[in-house]
Predict the structure of ABC transporter ATP-binding protein.
Amino acid sequence: MAEPSATKPERPDEESADDAVIVTRALTKRYRGGQLAVDGLDLTVPAGSVFGFLGPNGSGKTTTIRMLMGLIEPTSGSARVLGLPMPRASRTVLPRVGALIEGPALYGFLSGRDNLLRYDAADPTADPRTRRERVAAALDRVGLAAAGGKKAKAYSLGMKQRLGLAAALLQPRRLLVLDEPTNGLDPQGMREIRSLVRELASDGTTVFLSSHLLDEIEQVCTHAAVMARGRLITQGAVADLAAGARGRLVVTTPDAGDAARVLKEQGAADVVVDGDRVTAEPPERDLAEVNAALVAARVRVRGFVVERASLEDAFVALTGEGFDVAG
Ligand SMILES: Nc1ncnc2c1ncn2[C@@H]1O[C@H](COP(=O)(O)OP(=O)(O)OP(=O)(O)O)[C@@H](O)[C@H]1O
């Protein structure tokens, strides 16, 4: 439940939480049916980050976001957004947060511009005299200035998502929360939303976005948390998470069988041959020696590199399983 006061609790081990935009402690949600959707979540989202909330379908991402936005009550634990407890401080917090959850609610028979005018009019703090300028600026921001007069039902899914983002951007926001913003989009639509997210982040807005796509998180996010079955597996800077996993040695050669044998002799583990590519966990010894051993064994080496570890490697190393995106 929410903390009893709005002052920050004394937690000397978590000083980084001080400038965090979202902090949860032991946040737990058990649905009425008994389903434990989120289990003891400790999340820290630093200010200014693009924070990827990653996990396969059903891992508890949407449930967490709904608790953060005060839409549902946690069963136990606490969540603070912009330093204030949720859901208690919803009225203060939500106007400072732009959210795009489960797709924007749009009137298809209205133009994109008129949809935004309606959104703006529903905000009691928005000055009606400057409404048109705000809407024009928001349309411009998401690249819909030229399509603003078109009916929303004629928009592609990507355009609808961008219109939803424009609605979230009518007011200056400290935090944007986007639930699977690229879900269902074609590759072009995905690229557009991703570059928009990067742009917003470069202006200093903290962006919290959920995704079940590892490469999306790697492309867009500075930080990430990985969920599986309602529990947090890891969180931190994307570069650190990936660096935690060792890269793989990749040897390209027409003599793959011999190369695999030599690599094993040299102490490489998990040697895998795939056509003319032999990959392995690099041995502890100097890689120059390994390369020399290949050459001495008359293996014709076309390529010899250590590929940078990806977030996927880190995920596999942490869980011992592949990242299952099915479902
Ligand atoms: N209203 C609900 N009542 C009961 N169980 C629910 C409810 N909403 C979600 N769940 C269950 O809680 C678990 C977590 O679901 P949640 O939607 O939070 O996951 P998710 O990671 O967001 O997945 P997705 O991307 O598919 O939405 C799932 O097992 C789901 O079936």
Summary: The longest strand covers residues 20-30. Residues 3 and 85 are 6 Å apart (CA to CA). Residues 1-16 have pLDDT under 50 and may be disordered.
